[in-house]
Structure formats: C-alpha cells, structure tokens
C-alpha cells in the first residue's frame, strides 16, 4: 500500500502543521491523506521506492519535532466493519463473530509482513491502539476493554498457527485497562523492549473517522536525548523555557531543509539558548543576542558544552556569534541581510502566579511589549535575507476582568515589511466531520501552544520578509 502512519505529539494541530510543511517543502515530498488527533496517514511521492527507505524514515523522524513514531501501514479496515465487529452492545453474537473473522483474516495475511519469519521463532509483540480522540467513550469502553484483548489473543493464536515456537505480548497494567485511561507504549519503551528487532514488533492500530490503519513501527523519537540536552546543559531556567519539541517545530517552519550547515540562524532574545541548542542538533549555524550579559555567557557555555557532548568540533570564532545587545540595536552588530532564518521568543511579560487585571496587562502591552515587538520586526527586517522567515512567539494573557488579551502582532509585522504565512495550508488537508478535528482558515493563521489553565499562553506566528 506504501502508506505510512505518523503518531502525533500532544499538540496534534501543531504536529500536523509541522509534518505537512515538511512534506510540502523538504526533499521528503508527500501528502497527509487522512488524520485524527493522534495519527497522520502519509503517502510519499517517492520515498517508499528507495531500497533503504527505513533510513529515510529515520532521518525524517530526526528532523521532525512533533512526531513520536513512524510505522509502515499494511492494511486498513473501514469504520463500519470495526463498529459491527465491536458494537457498544452485542445483540447478535453470530454476526459479530463472522465480522471479527474478517479482521482475523486481515491480521493473518499481514503477520508475515510484520515479522518476516515466524516459524520456529520466539515472537514478542505489543499492540498500541491510537483512537480518533483519546477522550472518546468508544476508546475507553470498547477499544481498550474488548478490541485490545481480542487482538492480543488472536495475534498470539495466529503466530502459533504459523509455527511460532513461543509467543508473548506486552501486557498493559490492569488498572489502566479498568479505568479506560490507557496510554499506548511510549517511544522510549520501544528501545527498552527491543521492538525494532525482527522477531519483536509494536503493531499500531491507528484510528481515524474512516477506519483503522494497521502498521508496524519502524522508528521512534528519542526523547531521552532531547531531555538530556534540555536538563543537563550547564545553564537552564525551567519555569520559562520552551520545550525541545516546540523549538524543533519552530525551526522547521523556517523552511530550510537543504545544506543546513550553511544556514545561519539568529535568536535575538537568546536567554539560555534553547532554540540555538536544538538548532545545533538539527545542523544549523547559530547566532544569539540578549540584553542580559549573563544570559549571553550562559548560552555560550551551553553551546560549547553541546558541541562537546555531540563530539563535534566547535566552529572557529564562535564567540563572535554571540553579543550582548538590546533588541532595538541588534542590526548594528551583524551585517545586513545576513541571516537565513530567525527563531525567537521575546520577553512575554512577568511570571504571573495569579491572573492580573486588564489595566495591568494593558499597561504592560502599551509601555513594554508593543515597543519591543515593533523593534523586533524592524530589526529582523534588516537582518534577514529577502523572502526568508521569522518564527516568533507572542503572549496571550488571561485577565481577571478583561478576558484574554493579545497584541496585534499581524499589524506590527505588516507595518515592518513582513507577510504572515499561515502555519497550515488548509487546501492540502482533508475534511473531517468531527468539529474538534476540523481546521478553519482563521484558526491556522497562528497556533497556540499551552495548557488551558495557563495565565500566559504562547502563540506561534510565522512571517516572511517581503522583497
Ligand atoms: C523569554 S526569554 C527567552 C528564553 C529563551 N527562549 C530560552 O530558552 O532560554 C526572553 C529573553 O529576552 C531578553 N530580553 C528582554 N528584553 C530584551 C531586550 N529589550 N532586548 C534584548 N533582549 C531582551 C531577556 O534577558 C531574556 O533572556
């Protein structure tokens, strides 16, 4: 079938937007042909024709910030068949049995593609079910309680029937099955359980509104590697830092996929250097500035530490890449039109522990944040090459008496020669009937990365410098 299943990160809209952008603009050309809040189904133009396509999938996994796992799809069962085989309540047991038989046949014909060899082997498998949405009752009441045990039993049975010497499977803790809150296997467990070996596999059952895709996992994110960089770097500040995932996603929106080692990236509010550290991991040349001398020193130490950890040579004259300077003068310390991309998170306001009042936030916006964002766009315009991109975070602040407040970033950008690029090209995405899964034009102009109860929420914008 040559389709691949991508397991999306927790901010699934952002993960989908990142994936679609990479499939549209990188060398890995393809299209998302179906999706849910947990998985995207991808058809590539040519990747699957190459002999070592698994290596390409690994490279793609490494590039993407928002993807947890990638698997190859072996079959698809439409949603009517699933609903008839696993109804809310069984009225006609015979009918249910005969439809379940169809699912067993599909599993039977695909087992040898999943494991290659079964006869005389010791086989271990783990079933992961990704529903359309995790909070659906059909997931907690039917899929976990009936579909999962059915799959474990029938797959074990089929492996024995095909001559498997021994078969065992991953048993999820009972308490999660009973409560209906079950998380499929985490990416780092795939390595712990050896699930990339030939005789061991994670079999994914990924649901969309259309049906279920059956896939075998080939690659998974290595969160421990990113966590190590995030947590073990010499200087960090947890309460304010962006996550490694978000940093990588934002870097990908810059649309620089070729010869990254020649692309110069700037963060003019560098702080402890989160963007730049992950930009190094993703192969870019990095530059950073900040008004705070200590932060610039911290970033330089973090950057040196990372090159050491990666066992890479520290670039010559690296210290010239970092300057202590306020945003309104950044263009004085670098050449005009020098940068291929800018990724940044300016100051978002004080760390509120309680919701502020409208007037307090209004003053903060008028006196501090608006002038700072205006300076950012003005300076970035001078520093960026023409048609290159700026990916930037702006705050949404919840107030006690005035709702959610935000700056008119689009207007500031427009006044300074930037064009807004929507984060998702909705022409390229299929329509969904569930309103929670739909994308509307207005909604994709910028996406939010935050929990519902956060006082300051991060909003992600993408702009391109006009000629
Ligand atoms: C939200 S933090 C950036 C955090 C960074 N992304 C990180 O991972 O550490 C904002 C940074 O902007 C700097 N800053 C504040 N006002 C500035 C200004 N006017 N010009 C330049 N930098 C400024 C602060 O010193 C702080 O390090």
Detailed description of the structure:
This protein is an alpha/beta fold. The protein has two domains: 219 residues, VC0802-like (2-Layer Sandwich), CATH 3.30.2130.30; 242 residues, Vaccinia Virus protein VP39 (Rossmann fold, 3-Layer(aba) Sandwich), CATH 3.40.50.150. It is 36% helix and 24% strand. The protein contains 13 helices and 17 strands. The strands form two sheets. Strands 9, 10, 11, 12, 13, 14, 15, 16 and 17 form a nine-stranded mixed sheet that branches. It has an eight-stranded mixed sheet with strand order 2-3-1-4-8-7-5-6. Strand 16 and strand 17 form a beta hairpin. The longest helix has 26 residues. The chain starts with a strand and ends with a strand. The model has no long low-confidence stretch (mean pLDDT 95). S-adenosylmethionine binds next to helix 10.
How is the topology of this model organized?
Layout: E1 3-8, H1 12-25, E2 30-35, E3 39-44, H2 53-63, E4 67-78, H3 79-85, H4 93-115, E5 122-130, H5 137-161, E6 166-169, H6 174-179, H7 187-192, E7 200-207, E8 211-220, H8 223-232, H9 244-252, E9 264-267, H10 274-281, E10 285-290, H11 293-309, E11 322-324, E12 339-344, H12 358-383, E13 384-398, E14 404-406, H13 409-415, E15 418-420, E16 447-449, E17 456-465
Parallel strand pairs: 5-6, 5-7, 9-10, 9-12, 10-11, 12-13
Antiparallel strand pairs: 1-3, 1-4, 2-3, 4-8, 7-8, 13-14, 13-17, 15-17, 16-17
Helix pairs in contact: 3-4, 4-5, 9-10, 10-11
This protein binds S-adenosylmethionine (SAM).
Residues 240-242, 269, 271-272, 274-275, 290-292, 295, 326-327, 345-348, 372 line the site of S-adenosylmethionine.
